[in-house]
Amino acid sequence: MRYLLLSLVTLLAACDQGPTFTEAEPGEHLSAGDATVTKTDQNAFSLPLANLSPSRRLDFSVGNSFFRNPWVIGPASTDARDGLGPLFNTNACQNCHIKDGRGHPPAADAKQAVSMLVRLSVPASETDDLTRSGLVPEPNYGGQFQDAAIPGIEPEGRVRVTYEPVTMTFADGHQVTLRKPRLEFFDLAYGEMHPATLFSARVAPPMIGLGLLEAIPEADLLAHADPNDDDGDGISGRANRVWDSAANTTAMGRFGWKAGQPGVLQQSAGAFANDMGLNSHLVSTDSCAPSQTDCLAMPNGGDVEVSDSVLNSVVFYSRTLAVPARRNVDDPQVLKGKGLFHEANCQGCHVPTFTTGAQAPEPELANQTIRPYTDLLLHDMGPGLADGRPEFLANGQEWRTAPLWGIGLTEAVNGHTQFLHDGRARNLMEAVLWHGGEAAASRDKVLTFDADQRAALLAFLNSL
User: Fold this and answer.
1) Would you list the DSSP string of 233-268?
2) What's the average model confidence in pLDDT over 34-54?
């Protein structure tokens, strides 16, 4: 009887520990299948897909030029790149997506936020039609706060981020001090904001692998959705449904921190319009709110400032930016960390593997086994990370699962390790500890890890 009890205890302990990995899976280092690249320096996020032909690499370079170089005030002799503003956040895509990587919150003395923007809206009423917009813009400042402007126009104002400490304690007594951000607006040029304005700070996410994420069949993503938590595991991911302007219908959201955009085309056109004040056939509005009459009266770069050919070049570039290979996949500490990642059920949202569909936006993206560590679904992350701002079906506590591929190269590419939607986490462990809501059980499991286990988990995450 004693032997049976000991065996049962051993079995239960083994179940609680999760899987043990003694070697890497075949091809596990190939994060993007045949499209994977192997660079690990500051240019690791700026390479074309490894399976892109030489002629297609020329198209990639053209798109890179429009992504990297600044736009100018219109009208100008540089008519392929004019029309900036009147209000904007930056004058080049690369200024936010630094080295095609991750943005960061502004320093305390920064005059502009640059690679962090703030989305604005007000609560919707029962009569508001949110089918196409997903939200109601703030009356005087629109849907995005712009802290830069062309000469003759006042920027909307300035934003500053301050922090208050939040302490988390591990089971072994080790403490980590997190920082909770607080936004402050000043020098407002267009009147007071609506008293019920909702704010959401967003740092620019990495650009790698966007075309591959777009190529995952919708049915494969929805297979991980469990909106009513029917399986009782505490995870109830669901798809956002957003407006697709090109198709003139609703579609599954995949991109943006709340999955508010259906694809790379609309994501790119929206960034041109909101971040740089550049209209296109797909997004015909510029950065001026309806009440900003001086802004609306300023000259522009033409009825269509971003031509279809330029937009398509940037979209091609964005779709074909490659994902670097994983490192140290056979390292014993990395394998131990992988087991701990699964023990904490992190893979419940950060799904390791998908296969892209045969009908991909570009042929090089098709039929690839990829390892993005995301499900692209919305999850309730609890009040700690909440911005209180709905976006289409996403509520104020929901966020899209961020892909983890390439995350271990953030410091090499961008010179910092600031994570989450607003850059509040100063390292990967802080990012883990901010997880709440559906991820609270995973976070609490991590809080039981000792120093060696924490180091192993971080080694695994840094290998991605």
Assistant:
1) SS---B--EEEETTTTEEEE--BSTT--BSSHHHHH
2) 98
